[in-house]
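Reply to dn_fold:

You asked what the input looked like. This is it:
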Amino acid sequence: MAEIKDPQNTLIMETTKGKVVIQLLPEVAPGHVARIKELTAEKAYDGVVFHRVIEDFMAQTGDVQFGKQGSDNFNPARAGMGGSDKPDLKAEFSATPHIRGTCSMARSQNPNSANSQFFICFTDAPWLNKQYTVWGQVIEGMEVVDKIKRGEPVRDPDSIVSIRLASEA
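and this is what came back:
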């Protein structure tokens, strides 16, 4: 297992395919890291599906409004269209590159529209640099991310079982 140097800024994400460890980057995107931690503390991501997974690109999840299995609003056809009940975030674009294992926020055309959805890059995606907010990096379990079922939308998708801060796990 990867050594966890900062348990307050490390996420343990259990998925239907296995465990993924993500190092948060508060020095790069403090507002986005705070939102991820807030939604994690509320257990908002537990049960949320990976609704858009593109081979050689990325796996997207985090729609706590329409993508959370077992919730009243769960709607696989609408997963990817929702966010959380919190306000959208101001962009925190940085020089941190989108490489394999990068965790970055999904958004609409509006740069300041990120809310709860995020994606994990399967491969380097330099065209996303300085266009999307990077907030974390997978430090263990990319082989698990690689196994997430593909599709746009995904039929019978994989999901996040739980996300916890390492300090709480």
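The chain has one domain: 10-156.
Hope that clears it up.
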